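Hi P.,

Sorry for the delay on this. The queue was packed all week, but I finally got your sequence through. Input first:
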Amino acid sequence: MKISASILAAKLTGLAQELPTYKQESIDLIHIDVMDGNFVPQISFGEAFTKEVKSHTQIPLDVHLMVSNPELHVPKYFDLKPYCITFHIETTNFSVRLAEEIRKAGIKVGVSLNPQTPPESISQILPYLDLVLLMTVDPGFYGQSFVKSGFEKIAAVRKLTKPYNIELEVDGGVNESNMEELARLGVDITVVGSGLYKTGDPNAQGKKLKELAVSVRTRS
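Then the structure:
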């Protein structure tokens, strides 16, 4: 399982010093939460900050656009060549066109679902996707707990995506207590914030979380 480090939970003033210390055997991706104060009430990062992050690390970026009208924002991240650009299915009426535009730029396409959004809402766009990001908290509010219905919805989304070569990513309330169950459900990428940074050693914690996931898949 890949670990995507949500730097929203890090001490942002020290990122320039901390990012170069991240080891890819512990942290596979850097999760960038782009919030516009519209689709979600908070404002966080934009393309300038994301570019600055990229200048301090060789670890690929995992760009998550929590913004209205993502078609206006997506092209701003093409030059950064992230691992994936993810937009929310709730935010656009042009999801297929947007997905094709991202793929044309040589970047993986991700679509995200809020906790209350039914999995079936992405059924028509599945052939155009490389990744589905399932929110297990309401987007835009840091530090929430994993929603109780999260495991059932993960299973439903995995069933829906099974005929396609699509990665499943989970974001929200991920920590040691649920990592093994996420691995059992076939989750490919976990976005980890406070569950990664709480010990003060994200490399050691990332390795520990990955070992939990590997142990489950080894036993099965």
